[in-house]
Amino acid sequence: MPELPEVEFVARQLRDDLVGRRIRRAEVFWPRAIQGLGVPEFEAGLAGRVVTAIGRRGKYLLIYLDDGAVLLVHRRMSGNLRLAASDEDEPYVRVAVTLDDGRRLLYTDPRKFGRLALARAEELPALFAALGPEPLDPSFTVEALAARLAGRRGPIKAALVDQSVVAGLGNIYADEALFRAGIHPLRPASSLDPAEVAALHMGIVGVLRAGIEHGGTTFSRYRDAYGESGTNRQHLEVYQRTGEPCIRCGTPIERIVVGQRGTHFCPSCQRARPFSGTGQARRRRAT
DNA sequence: CTATAAACCTGCTGGC
DNA sequence: TGCCAGCAGGTTTATA
């Protein structure tokens, strides 16, 4: 599942390789992947344009064009963007963008959940009005996180994957951030004390930075712009580790469902209520 | 307003 | 060995 680190890593790759290139033509093979415009208008809107910049907002990849338009790509569950040589092909190609040097930017997506859209750059603020702060931006402070969590009665895990609270966290990094902070996923979001919010802030920023550093988390699908897997999976501490020993205390990792999503946590390191344990386990801080 | 649930999709897993 | 129900989850839309 592409989350912020997977989108950011590919954005950096495409920035090096795509900026300055002219688009020869675009072909849509799965019309429902295009949002807003009809397929002919979408294809015509890309043909002949030069890529001027690459950006990212939350899980959206932004490809800026020389006429003031922006191509938005959201990969949802199984989408990938791959820069392929002219003679290379891939399965599940939904959209193909041919560049002036013959290479193709391929949007592949077995599940067909991902969406592409073409917008004017000046429309972006309105389009992203409901998105929360960028967690790697300096403006994302402990206070900013606390303000977003205040008044929310649902579980903290559900709040973290809500894009209006923080932009870019998905199921993997939300579970990882809660583990680093030592917070139980079912804790009401508004019940965290200031120290816990600070620990969670550090956890969020930490897991996202690590994810980018390791080229993203690959389970079955995610690949980068050159078709390579990310290595962050081997650095995950709870996600998809059900039954395996906690790296901190050895207790088997548990899996529950929170807000319709599989949620992984250590029942010893992440207590349901602070200081409500048997006294057997010590509270520890992630370093 | 908040919040919960279904729908969108198809490859993969696990049970029999 | 083979079949198939059910799971996986980001976002939008619908409903309570």
Features of this protein?
25% helix, Helicase, Ruva Protein, domain 3, N-terminal domain of MutM-like DNA repair proteins, globular, 2 domains, four-stranded antiparallel beta sheet, five-stranded mixed beta sheet, 287 residues, alpha+beta, 11 strands, DNA-binding, 7 helices
Explained architecture:
The chain has 287 residues and is α+β, with helices and mostly antiparallel strands. It has two domains: 124 residues, N-terminal domain of MutM-like DNA repair proteins, CATH 3.20.190; 143 residues, Helicase, Ruva Protein, domain 3 (Orthogonal Bundle). Helices cover 25% and strands 21% of the residues. It contains seven helices and eleven strands. A five-stranded mixed β-sheet has the order 2-9-5-4-3, with helices on one face. The protein has a four-stranded antiparallel β-sheet with strand order 1-7-8-6. A hairpin with a 4-residue loop joins strand 7 and strand 8. The longest helix is centred in the C-terminal third of the chain and has 20 residues. It is globular, with a radius of gyration of 20 Å. The C terminus is likely disordered. It binds a DNA duplex (16 and 16 nucleotides) through loops.
